[in-house]
Design brief:
Length: 248
């Protein structure tokens, strides 16, 4: 009997106590990491949902600030007050200041997390039932701006001759450009510029490239108007390029 008691006492050694303590610490650390990961995921989803809300607000704002197409009679005496309150009393000055005012109205600057941007166009993708404002800012700030909407990456003015390149995130769900890789040759997108001119573009090519390959931004379009959509593959290793050309 005494031998049995001694054996049991020797079984709970300091080494075993230390090991149990380590197991407890590992257990609580595991719980903490799981909670942290779940919290990070929930926050990321919340952040993306807020971004989609911002997209809606930007689009609604553009609808409220359409260009005034009122025709002014040539013989009318018009006084236009610009932002610095200078007065124009002849047709030439009046039209110059009206153009400046329209530019301010339709191409307003906004900011997000320190990044300044303007909304230069709206791209609609009927097949995906998606509509996005296209933001333009400094190249160094694109990563920040991509969190709220697709951005102009390269090219001239929207709906003009050349290759208007738009880049957007792939979150591997239905947000932003995640479903752009599902577009096929023959699908249609539309691009609306600041003058509310909307042109149709048809997909004529789709392929993947390495992240460093920017040949898809070439402006050699043989005098045609093109729009290129760029996003990541689901594993983020390559870039999906969708080329579209104006449909007349």
């Amino acid at each position: 009997m005494n031998q049995i008691l001694v054996t049991k006492k020797l079984y709970v050694t300091p080494e075993l106590k230390k090991r149990k303590k380590i197991y407890k610490i590992d257990f609580f650390l595991s719980i903490f990491l799981v909670v942290a990961l779940v919290s990070a995921y929930i926050y990321a989803e919340y952040d993306r949902s807020k971004s989609e809300e911002m997209i809606g607000e930007i689009l609604a704002s553009e609808e409220e600030n359409t260009v005034d197409d009122t025709v002014i009679p040539e013989d009318a005496l018009v006084i236009v007050l610009s932002e610095d309150y200078t007065v124009a009393t002849n047709d030439e000055e009046m039209h110059e200041q009206a153009e400046e005012t329209s530019s301010v109205t339709t191409n307003r600057q906004s900011s997000y997390n320190g990044a300044t941007y303007t909304n230069v166009a709206t791209v609609d993708i009927p097949k995906l039932n998606k509509s996005f404002p296209v933001l333009q800012g400094e190249l160094s700030q694109i990563e920040t701006l991509l969190k709220i909407s697709p951005c102009k990456f390269w090219g001239g003015e929207p709906n003009e001759v050349g290759n208007f390149c738009i880049v957007g995130h792939n979150y591997r769900n239905d947000k932003f450009f995640s479903k752009v890789p599902n577009l096929e040759v023959g699908d249609i997108i539309t691009l609306t510029d600041l003058s509310k001119r909307t042109l149709k573009y048809e997909v004529y090519d789709k392929y993947t490239v390495e992240p460093e390959d920017v040949s898809c931004t070439s402006q050699l379009t043989n005098g045609k108007k093109e729009v290129t959509l760029i996003t990541c593959t689901d594993d983020s290793r390559l870039r999906v390029v969708v080329r579209t050309r104006e449909v007349k």
